[in-house]
Amino acid sequence: MEVHAHTHTARKKWTHYFWEFLMLFLAVFCGFWAEYQLEHKIEKDREKQYMKSLLSNLKADTMQLNQRMQFRNEKMAYFDTLMTLLKSPGLATNTAAVYLNGFWAPIGARFVPNDGVLAQLKNAGGLRLIQKQVVVDSLLNYDTETKYIVDFENWERDRLIDLSTYEKVLDASVFEQNTQYKYPEGIFIIENPAGNPPLLSYKKEDLDQFYNRIQLQKRINAVIMNGFYKLQVKAGRLIALIEEKYHYK
Q1: Percent of the chain with pLDDT over 90
Q2: Confidence check: pLDDT of 211 > 60
Q3: pTM over 0.70
Q4: Is the dihedral angle over the CA atoms 64, 70, 73, 77 positive or is it negative?
Q5: What's the CA gap between 110 and 61, in Å, rounded?
């Protein structure tokens, strides 16, 4: 009968297990660290892209605010002229000017903010991507001021949509006879009425109501112009802040 000798495997030292554990730990840690760094880089890239888009929106807002300020400043001239004419003893000999200024007085052009990027950031929880809190605070402050202006313009439209005071004094056929419509562009050109077309009413009561309506429009217009100015200043500061913090200059 043969006797086989048993071979014994040498027991591994504890240091061997320690190094195996350490290498496994380092491999897992490095994997998590690499994934974290990749996600961090992706978020930083997204943050910078959002900032570029926000800058574009803010600059578009600034341009639009300049246009709306100019338009409303022109409306102020229409209001002032109308109010002067309506209180003038020579009103009957200046009705052409009443019609010309009376046409433009109720015309509006509302401010429509370019808020698509900011709305996306707020709705999708993207504000957390913006690491600079001072930028977040300034953005939200600008958004609040923008909503105030939009709401006030909506209130202006609802408050002044009734044109009955105009219709008591101004004859719409005079506007029609002196308006050139261009299609398909959808634009129109207003010409100064020839002569002095008569008003529908010269009653003091009707003229006073018309004057009061114009004066109300002037006051509301002044409030909105002040709001535009404040919003324009905030937009300029926000643009400068983003350019400084993200080195876009």
Answers
A1: 54
A2: yes
A3: yes
A4: negative
A5: 12
Token pair, residue 34, equals: 């690499």
Distance between CA atoms of residues 162 and 140, nearest Å = 35
> What's the chain's average pLDDT?
85
Q: Which residue in the block uniquely carries the two structure tokens 């300020």?
A: 69
DSSP symbol at 192? P
Asked if 109 contacts 102 with a C-beta cutoff of 8 angstroms, the reply is no
The helix or strand, by DSSP H or E, that contains position 58, with its residue range, turns out to be: helix 14-86
Instruction: Judge residue 159's burial from the number of C-beta atoms within 10 Å of its C-beta, 0-12 exposed, 13-18 middle, 19 or more buried.
Output: exposed
Amino acid, single-letter form, for residue 247? H
Question: What is the C-alpha to C-alpha distance for residues 33 and 83, in angstroms, rounded to an integer?
Answer: 72
Beta carbons of 108 and 218 less than 8 angstroms apart: no
In a 3-state reduction of DSSP, which class is residue 193?
coil
What is the rounded CA–CA span in Å between residue 76 and residue 223?
12
What does the pLDDT average to over 110-118?
90
